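ARCHIVE RECORD
Type: protein–small molecule complex
Small molecule: histidyl-adenosine monophosphate
Source of inputs: curated submission
Record status: active
Notes field left blank by submitter.
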Amino acid sequence: MQNFRTIKGTHDLLPNELIIWRAVENFIHNIMQQNGYGEIRTPAFENTELFVRGIGTDTDIVTKEMYSWTDQGGNTLTLKPELTAPVARAYLQHQMGNQNPIHRLYYIDALFRRERPQKGRQRQFHQFGAEAIGSPNPEQDAEIIALAYNIYKKFNIQDMSVRLNSIGNAEIRPLYLETLRSSIKKIEMELCTTCQTRIEKNALRLFDCKNPHCQELLDQYAPFIYDSISDDDRNHFEMLTRILKEMEIPYFHDKKLVRGLDYYSHTTFEITSSVLGAQDALCGGGRYNGLIEQLGGKSTPAVGFAAGVERLILAINKQNNLSIPPDIYFIHLGDEATVTASKIANDLRLNCGKIVVMETLRRSLKAQMREAGRCGANTTIILGEKELAESKIIVKDMSTGNQNEVPISELSKFISSNS
Ligand code: HAM
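STRUCTURE (tokenized, with ligand):
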């Protein structure tokens, strides 16, 4: 008798794994809603044409990876390989643009791509993501990048790198692609066969090639699209980087970051972590100002990101950190301070919605400090007898190491506005 097993590239999730899955999903629902994003769910399958038109005919997803079929009624359907096109379709179908000039939407959902399975790459996988539809401005790009970055920060993911670029508006592309093709024509035969086929079909994707020799040749001969973008688009990018610096989000301007889906314009970004190994992309996203028009709506600017849930969980597991890091670790020393600290911790949980972990083993200051670092709290609060006598409390930002002495009566206000 045949033994049935899961299809290659798909996995069962068993109760012990689902404990962490549920915690991660709850956390993402909370953080998205705290940032003003509303949940959207779209069907598991759509008309194939939505993805062909949205993602692009010559992309890897459309040419090689979609699960498509014709149903008994002759409709050509596809299991969704990504969610930006379905969200844009829903935005148009429900005329959301008429209700409000800006929509902030988020999702957590299962997706399907027929890729070669390996660690961190499945054929059925899950993404969480956010799409902000309506604003053309760089502060909206910054909000999206910060949202993604802060989620990973909250999970204490190590060795992260934010790669950022601008590919400008769609109008500059034909001229740029012509220049690109003519610059690499002379070395065409030295490129790998995949790159050779990409030159005519989808030359921008040359930059995605993993072959180091191709990359060396591109470094030497290929012009970067960033160097062709308009002054307005450059100003947009500069304003975005200014905001990211102000938000203390470290980024690297990677002029080769073009992303593999055709709907992008202007900003593109990816967050990677070396913790993941070969499939190191935690998430990716960017602007897609042309997509909604491409799908039959009026021109509407939009920006978003999507992130692999399996990859986030892989990174959390690799770091042996199965728990969600608290917002605040509360260190206290001495009986009187302990009584006051218990009340303050309770108030912070109830009034500021913070995850607060309080020391209850009465360990030494040094041991409590070590625990605060180990659990990945963003902020540590310290209340000793000296501080209590002065009605003050020490608030330490664990990422910068900066410390402030804050009057106890103003702590809730300080925490709400600084974290
Ligand atoms: P993407 O780069 O194709 O972008 O996917 C985003 C993330 O999904 C990747 O960085 C990775 O973490 C995860 N991912 C993709 N494929 C797989 C797979 N086969 N197995 C496991 N994880 C995977 C998009 O999907 C765009 N829709 C992102 C976006 C949203 N752009 C604007 N808004």
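CURATOR ANNOTATION: The chain has a mean pLDDT of 93.
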